[in-house]
Design goal:
5-stranded mixed β-sheet; mainly beta
């Protein structure tokens, strides 16, 4: 992640209704021995007037600074912004209205099992709803007779809570072996928990149910010889998306495989896939006949159907990280690092580095199809300084913004979210759209 404030991925980063035990439970009861949480009803109006794109109104909005930020996540469907901050020996989530900054609800304080590392936080969309998830991993259960055991602790909140001490809709603890030291990841529509070197647990955030998968028993579809090297690359609400990177094969067993859905011009024996946001997958193939380009596409996770694709120059230096992705609030536009897609017109654009052009990377896209990001102005691929850029997807032609201008890291509910640092002080600033 590029944010200096610890932005989380809203799966894709970019979130995501509670049962009786969640949304309103304990809402009127203060936590912590009768002490109310140290949050204000509303966030202060912005004292900072950042230089931002012309579509945002810096005379209105709200901001947070310092230790009131912690780690943040955006909930586009709920029109909210969540922050996770430390409180005493634990942590607490606070969910604010994206437009007004007013606190909608705060969660109960929870313990962090990790040592020296803040809990993880995700927004997961499942079944058309958004869930806010926190997780940590560490040792638990030690006493005079028993040794401590490795455990993943996951709390799942729905977006529509109310009150000062909202309990999670689901608290799930998953035992792990010593190999289970990886991060919990957002698989797309479920969470993926690495409990052993070959064992994975998928957590359904809507129900709290878990499903265990053994990668030795999975096989990438369309690859009868893929006996080894299979892995879960993403999750639908029902099935895993299985990848065999060595064979370049992926898909949902018994449903679809990349050989059948690969776009024209793609070599189906070179496939890769990652979870995207909003039930989408991000896929890549090399071009047929040893072409000098890659074929990238957005797929429907359940069916594998190609929703939009683009040709890209092969990068000078490839990244080993999964590409981030973000949707416009209306779901029409998707950006993923150097890619931008109009899912309605099925058009895609790529801004990978070439001999003549600098690489662009996008973090946010609005409902009118304006994407914001940065250009790497010096060096090649993973080094150098950046400059702000804007991309109207109607034309597919990017333009440079004034030097020093700051671009949003997210856009939702008619507001843009900006991060800023001055000296050692950090800011999260929210400005509404003009008009």
């Amino acid at each position: 992640m590029r944010s200096v404030l610890g932005k989380v991925s809203v799966a894709v980063v970019a979130v995501g209704t509670l049962a009786a035990c969640g949304g309103g439970s304990g809402g009127d009861k203060p936590s912590g021995g009768g002490q109310k949480p140290s949050v204000h009803t509303s966030a202060p109006a912005p004292t900072l007037k950042l230089d931002v794109p012309a579509g945002y109104d810096t005379s209105h909005g709200w901001q947070l600074s310092g230790n009131r930020i912690g780690t943040y996540a955006v909930l586009p469907k709920a029109g909210a912004i969540a922050t996770m901050t430390s409180e005493g020996t634990g942590y607490r989530v606070t969910v604010r209205d994206a437009v007004t900054g007013e606190v909608r609800w705060t969660g109960k304080p929870f313990r962090d099992l990790a040592e020296g590392e803040a809990p993880g936080v995700y927004v997961v969309a499942a079944g058309g709803k958004e869930y806010l998830v926190t997780w940590s991993q560490g040792e638990k259960g030690e006493d005079a007779l028993s040794k401590a055991k490795q455990v993943y602790a996951v709390d799942v909140y729905t977006a529509d809570g109310s009150g000062d001490a909202v309990a999670p809709a689901h608290h799930v603890e998953v035992p792990a072996t010593d190999y289970g030291t990886g991060r919990v990841t957002d698989g797309g529509e479920r969470l993926l928990i690495p409990v052993t070197d070959k064992g994975m647990v998928a957590l359904d955030v809507a129900t709290g149910r878990t499903t265990r998968y053994d990668t030795d028993s999975l096989k990438a579809p369309g690859c009868s010889s893929c006996a080894y090297g299979n892995e879960i690359a993403a999750l639908t609400d029902r099935d895993p998306v299985v990848l065999n990177e060595g064979a370049g094969a992926f898909g949902v067993p018994g449903s679809w495989d990349d050989d059948r859905i690969a776009p024209a011009g793609a070599d189906p024996a070179t496939g890769m896939v990652w979870p995207g946001t909003g039930g989408h997958l991000i896929a890549r193939w090399e071009q047929k006949n040893d072409g000098r380009q890659n074929v990238w596409a957005v797929l429907d996770g359940r069916t594998g159907q190609v929703q939009a694709s683009a040709l890209c120059a092969k990068p000078f230096i490839g990244s080993a990280e999964a590409p981030d992705s973000a949707l416009s609030p209306n779901g029409r536009y998707l950006v993923s690092d150097h890619l931008a897609f109009d899912l309605e017109s099925k058009k895609g654009y790529c801004f990978e580095e070439t001999d003549d052009t600098k690489p662009l990377s996008f973090d946010a896209v609005t409902d009118d199809g304006t994407a914001y990001g940065t250009s790497l102005t010096k060096g090649k691929s993973l080094t150098g300084s950046t400059a702000p850029v804007e991309l109207p997807l109607a034309s597919g032609t990017p333009k440079a913004l004034p030097e020093g201008q700051e671009v949003p890291v997210a856009d939702l509910a008619g507001v843009g979210v900006f991060t800023h640092s001055e000296g050692n002080e950090r800011y999260l600033v929210v400005y509404p759209h003009k008009g």
